[in-house]
Amino acid sequence: MPLFHTRGLSERKKSVLSLCKSKDSESEPSPPDGDTRKQELLAKIAMLQTQKVRLTDYLDERSAYLTQFAEEANAEFDQIGENALKGLDEASARIMENIESRMHAFEESTELNKEEIEKNEKKLAEFEGQIEKDRNEGLFFKNLTQRTPSETANAKEEMEKIREVTKENAGSKIRRNIYLALIGLLVVGIVDSLISSSSDWQKVAILGVISIALLSQFIYEQKMASETKKREEEKE
């Protein structure tokens, strides 16, 4: 009897322990699906953060490159502008030097033309005096005792033509030199207006029209001078 009682107690304890273990095992939570999703989400966030850092680094690098490129481009543009202004200054200096040279030549030419006119007038006076002397001495025309009035008038008319042609040639040369000087100044003004940042196209157009008009007049004067010279050569 006591042995049976002891066995019953031990079996009861075993059943109670097994029941408790089963309850404990049931009460232990199994790994939920939410933890896996959280881990995947955290992995995606970490990946996005990494990509964000890489993108930020790339943008910073490109920004630095573009900044350097802009600085180099600005420096190159400044150098081009400086070279253009330097070239304009040199061109202006050459044009002004050319104008001064032409004006100096013009002054010398005017002086020479003046001397030539005076020389021709002196020759005319000497010629008239010689005619009068030859007429008085009977040597101008051996078959005539004195010159006829028509011959004297013709001689004076011829000398007057020579004087007028000389004056006309001198005046034409003076006008041509003046036209060239004005054209040079207008070209400088046009180039300066085109290079300037605030270009006045109306001013450029007006200067261009004036330059064309002066150039046409210069060509006309040159043509007339050539024709006059040709006529003189044909007469000779």
UniProtKB/TrEMBL annotation:
Keyword terms, alphabetized: Membrane, Transmembrane, Transmembrane helix
Record region (Disordered): 1-37
Transmembrane segments: 177-195, 201-220
GO cellular component terms given for this protein: chloroplast
Protein name, per record: Uncharacterized protein
Species for this entry: Nyssa sinensis
